[in-house]
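Example record

One chain of 329 residues, shown exactly as stored in the release files.
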Amino acid sequence: MGSVLLTGGAGYIGSHTAKALRSSGREVVVLDSLVTGHREAIQDLPLVEADIADREIVRNTIRRYNVKAVIHFAAFLSESESIADPNRYYTNNFTKTLELLDTLIGESVRNFIFSSTAAVYGSPKEIPIQEKCPANPISPYGESKLAVERALPYFERSYGLRFICLRYFNAAGADTDGKLGEDHNPETHLIPNALNATTGGPELKIYGDDYETKDGTCERDYVHVSDLASAHLLALEKLESGNSSSVYNIGLERAYSVFNVLKIVENITGNLVPYSVVSRRIGDPAILLASSDRIRTELGWRPQHEALDTIVESAWSWHRSHPNGYASV
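Predicted structure tokens for this chain:
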């Protein structure tokens, strides 16, 4: 069967997926520059520290580990940062991915799973969002991801590269065994920042309370990171069975506002979340709510953590045991 190469596998979602793959009996190798990833997150899996655009190292890794499929996580992922520095995002997320794809084609690797995002939809006009909804990103981050998505069908037609694009909504939570969790620097996600604020960290900033939502704050669809990981395993099995390429949303089909999340955080931690409301950020749509009917129907995806309380509890457990992230280990 060969092994599975995870680019960016030392990151948040990548490390959880690496664990899921290994638990299923797969041979896994991680390639990560460690610019944002953490060596500790992959534990004893083989790690190649390199950039995805380093063709020689990627080529040698494929040959050494008999790689037959690639799950591509490596990317920068802040929408606001991408607006401030679009060149960095197009170069890293799009141009370097083309370099990676060219190397894979040259080495006859034909199964490719792409870590995409709900940001490709921009400010959607239809809620819940189905995969057929128009893709109109409002940030270079979303555009850089969509550019890869748009290239893949041409790569399939010309080179036989079969693919699945997984459009994540808001990944959250931590693995229940307590060894894996969310550790970004800087941290931009709501739940870890809210948890940090309850324990003496910086005051939480809420970016706008004048959206056309129930309480004026943005609403998001949160999905547990371990359920995201299981979706990658199902996607890999689909490609290995010779099925056609596809695109799938991954969300729980429930939208929570910022104030909803803060209330849950306060209930679980027993502490208030200090916050202040500041002006909106460019690139933040009012509501992102998934329709995940396609992945449930076609791949049989069944999330195991459907309550936001459960997701926040897992993140809180990680935060308490790792107050400084992986540096706490």
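Notes: The two ends are 34 Å apart (CA to CA).
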